[in-house]
Amino acid sequence: MAQLDAREQEALDAYRRYIDQRELCIDGTAPWSAIGAFFTDDAIFIDPAWGRVVGREQIAAFFDMSMAGLEGWSFPEEWTTVDGDRVVTFWWNRLPGTRADGTAYQAPAFSVLHYAGDGLFDYELDLMNIVEVGELLGESGWLPPQEMSLPGPGADRDVTPRRLTSP
Question: Ranges for the SnoaL-like domain (predicted)?
Answer without folding.
Answer: 31-119
